[in-house]
Amino acid sequence: MITGSITALVTPMTPKGDIDHDALGSLVERQIAAGTAAIVSVGTTGESATLSVLEHTEVVHGTIEAAAGRVPVIAGTGANSTSEAIHLTRAAKASGADACLLVTPYYNRPPQEGLYQHFKAVAEAVSIPQYLYNVPGRTAVDMLPSTVARLAEIPNIVGLKEAKPDLERVRELVALELPDFALYSGEDSTARASMLAGFHGVISVTANVAPETNARMCKAAVAGDSENASALDNELSGLHSALFTDPNPIPVKWALAELGLIQHGIRLPLVTLDAWHHEDVRAALRQAGLLS
């Protein structure tokens, strides 16, 4: 089981919106050097919604090549079409991904039985470890713990990224006591508390910017070291807030560009960070010791 800090990696782009493959390799190297436990490639933070299917598979393949087996690569392969999710998951397996992360179908708002049948169909179609991803704030559907428990009985469904910012939901999921089933926070602001309550790690946006501190914080939290986890998380608290002043991944891509790690490139309908928020992000970078 993967534990600790898992980075939901951005997809670097040129100002014209083309994929910057050289920057992608550099970002992967930085994550590995910082002690990141695994990398999610082309999740929602990686702008999966606006990459073509070909671009999607190319970025996943490029991430896997750059990682070269040093850390697991989890490919984002979710879609609101079950057949498309199966296609993307098959492509990720063919590229050599270690696992896949599948977001709940968005917009069409399936009921709980629809969610169950959707994820069951993907799991049965592709024999690769699969993580569920619940993010009701962006998909307009909330996968309940009872549905997660049903899905956990399927052998290659091995975990969940829970991004509902509710510690009561965290407690409900931990109370299920699902054997060999990984629980990851999808909310940086509550990740430390979630891990101290029994989650196994976080799939993090903040880790794009501050991977080393986030990795150390997660290691402490998973070990139950509340004091050290809190001290490290305090260094990151500004980032947890500032990186969500505009819809993700707008602020995190701007922050990485401010650090000189990527170019200013993002796909429409997203646009670069509003100047109103620039100083907030800079202040958070300074708090985290990343900017003088």
UniProtKB/TrEMBL annotation:
<comment type="similarity">
    <text>Belongs to the DapA family.</text>
</comment>
<keyword id="KW-0028">Amino-acid biosynthesis</keyword>
<protein>
    <recommendedName>
        <fullName>4-hydroxy-tetrahydrodipicolinate synthase</fullName>
        <ecNumber>4.3.3.7</ecNumber>
    </recommendedName>
</protein>
<feature type="site" description="Part of a proton relay during catalysis">
    <location>
        <position position="107"/>
    </location>
</feature>
<feature type="active site" description="Schiff-base intermediate with substrate">
    <location>
        <position position="161"/>
    </location>
</feature>
<feature type="site" description="L-lysine inhibitor binding">
    <location>
        <position position="80"/>
    </location>
</feature>
<dbReference type="GO" id="GO:0005829">
    <property type="term" value="C:cytosol"/>
</dbReference>
<comment type="function">
    <text>Catalyzes the condensation of (S)-aspartate-beta-semialdehyde [(S)-ASA] and pyruvate to 4-hydroxy-tetrahydrodipicolinate (HTPA).</text>
</comment>
<keyword id="KW-0704">Schiff base</keyword>
<dbReference type="InterPro" id="IPR013785">
    <property type="entry name" value="Aldolase_TIM"/>
</dbReference>
<dbReference type="GO" id="GO:0019877">
    <property type="term" value="P:diaminopimelate biosynthetic process"/>
</dbReference>
<keyword id="KW-0456">Lyase</keyword>
<feature type="active site" description="Proton donor/acceptor">
    <location>
        <position position="133"/>
    </location>
</feature>
<keyword id="KW-0963">Cytoplasm</keyword>
<dbReference type="GO" id="GO:0008840">
    <property type="term" value="F:4-hydroxy-tetrahydrodipicolinate synthase activity"/>
</dbReference>
<dbReference type="InterPro" id="IPR002220">
    <property type="entry name" value="DapA-like"/>
</dbReference>
<feature type="site" description="L-lysine inhibitor binding; via carbonyl oxygen">
    <location>
        <position position="49"/>
    </location>
</feature>
<comment type="pathway">
    <text>Amino-acid biosynthesis; L-lysine biosynthesis via DAP pathway; (S)-tetrahydrodipicolinate from L-aspartate: step 3/4.</text>
</comment>
<keyword id="KW-0220">Diaminopimelate biosynthesis</keyword>
<feature type="binding site">
    <location>
        <position position="45"/>
    </location>
    <ligand>
        <name>pyruvate</name>
    </ligand>
</feature>
<dbReference type="InterPro" id="IPR020625">
    <property type="entry name" value="Schiff_base-form_aldolases_AS"/>
</dbReference>
<dbReference type="GO" id="GO:0009089">
    <property type="term" value="P:lysine biosynthetic process via diaminopimelate"/>
</dbReference>
<feature type="site" description="L-lysine inhibitor binding">
    <location>
        <position position="84"/>
    </location>
</feature>
<feature type="binding site">
    <location>
        <position position="203"/>
    </location>
    <ligand>
        <name>pyruvate</name>
    </ligand>
</feature>
<feature type="site" description="L-lysine inhibitor binding">
    <location>
        <position position="106"/>
    </location>
</feature>
<comment type="subunit">
    <text>Homotetramer; dimer of dimers.</text>
</comment>
<dbReference type="InterPro" id="IPR005263">
    <property type="entry name" value="DapA"/>
</dbReference>
<feature type="site" description="Part of a proton relay during catalysis">
    <location>
        <position position="44"/>
    </location>
</feature>
<dbReference type="InterPro" id="IPR020624">
    <property type="entry name" value="Schiff_base-form_aldolases_CS"/>
</dbReference>
<dbReference type="Pfam" id="PF00701">
    <property type="entry name" value="DHDPS"/>
</dbReference>
<keyword id="KW-0457">Lysine biosynthesis</keyword>
